[in-house]
């Protein structure tokens, strides 16, 4: 049985999906706009359930085809083993997708709760109002890189973490760990490792504000696409 989702974690995900819909350069964001963004984020998750299940179903079908081929079309033991292994991989992938889909109904249910919605709106509003200060802090932590060169989803994950640390009194360790979890879901392996490095550097700068006059290499850089 999958673990229960925490309201604040769900709020972070909804906030991330909401921020992804805000165009760069949007100067003013009314409360009605934020509510509309939240509704769109919930609809995005609803559509994701269907997409994940459809993909998992297709993978199971391909798995069955490879399994049948291993029995009827394989010309050697080696080819039969290869087909069987491919079938197993496809089945495992489908199972993993279904596991993700199983979590989403709970997320959608909790998204309607007052606590989740309020925290989501607070996150989106804080990031938007404090965008300049947050981005400046992030730029100071970047090494041979610029924030605007990252994919927008990665930029927004970083901004959410900084908003929580700087303005919403969330402990640094908690905010960083939650940002990494978001990155694992919405970014790639190189992306979440890079974001983790940036946030760790920000944490060091906040803890020792006089010791970061010169930038140190975080050890990780995102690959350019």
Automatic annotation (TrEMBL):
GO biological process: DNA-templated transcription termination; transcription antitermination
UniProt keyword Transcription regulation present: yes
GO MF terms, alphabetically ordered: RNA binding
Keywords: RNA-binding, Transcription, Transcription antitermination, Transcription regulation
GO CC entries: cytosol
Record SUPFAM superfamilies: NusB-like
Domain of life: Bacteria
InterPro entries named among the record's database cross-references: NusB-like_sf, NusB_fam, NusB_RsmB_TIM44
Basic and acidic residues composition bias: residue spans: 213-225
Family to which this protein belongs: Belongs to the NusB family.
Function: Involved in transcription antitermination. Required for transcription of ribosomal RNA (rRNA) genes. Binds specifically to the boxA antiterminator sequence of the ribosomal RNA (rrn) operons.
Name by which UniProt lists this protein: Transcription antitermination protein NusB
Species of provenance: Woronichinia naegeliana WA131
């Amino acid at each position: 049985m999958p673990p229960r989702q925490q309201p604040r974690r769900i709020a972070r995900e909804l906030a991330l999906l909401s921020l992804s819909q805000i165009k760069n350069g949007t100067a003013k964001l009314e409360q009605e706009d934020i509510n509309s963004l939240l509704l769109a984020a919930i609809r995005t998750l609803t559509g994701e359930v269907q997409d994940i299940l459809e993909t998992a179903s297709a993978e199971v079908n391909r798995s069955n085809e490879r399994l049948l081929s291993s029995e009827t079309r394989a010309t050697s033991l080696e080819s039969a083993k290869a087909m069987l292994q491919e079938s197993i991989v496809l089945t495992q992938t489908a199972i993993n997708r279904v596991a993700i889909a199983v979590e989403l109904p709970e997320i959608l249910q909790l998204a309607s709760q007052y606590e989740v919605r309020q925290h989501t709106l607070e996150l989106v509003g804080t990031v938007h109002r404090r965008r300049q200060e947050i981005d400046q802090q992030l730029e100071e932590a970047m090494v041979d890189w610029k924030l605007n060169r990252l994919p927008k989803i990665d930029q927004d994950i970083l901004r959410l973490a900084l908003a929580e640390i700087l303005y919403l009194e969330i402990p640094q360790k908690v905010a960083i760990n939650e940002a990494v979890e978001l990155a694992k879901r919405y970014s790639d392996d190189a992306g979440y490792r890079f974001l983790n490095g940036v946030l760790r550097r920000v944490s060091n700068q906040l803890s020792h504000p006089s010791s970061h006059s010169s930038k140190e290499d975080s050890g990780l850089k995102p690959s350019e696409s």
